[in-house]
Design a protein that fits this description.
alpha+beta, two-stranded antiparallel sheet, 14% strand
Amino acid sequence: MPQKISVKVSSRYQIAVPHAARRQLNIQRGDRLLVDIQDDMIVLIPAPMNYVSKLAGLHQEIWQDINTNDYLHGERDAWNGSSND
């Protein structure tokens, strides 16, 4: 079971990221963290330096058996209310 670490909220509503978390996630000075509120929890997530690189290839398995050009043309035709048939 992972060790529980607590932090104290300062008078200016600030917290320090514990050393173990910084080391495990390679968080450096000046890095940005995304704050995600989930139900009654606060989740801190290291913000990617480059969102395009981070998201590249995400869910590529969805498109594995689909001709993306045909799909794109079908979507454009639907937007225009026309067809190439």
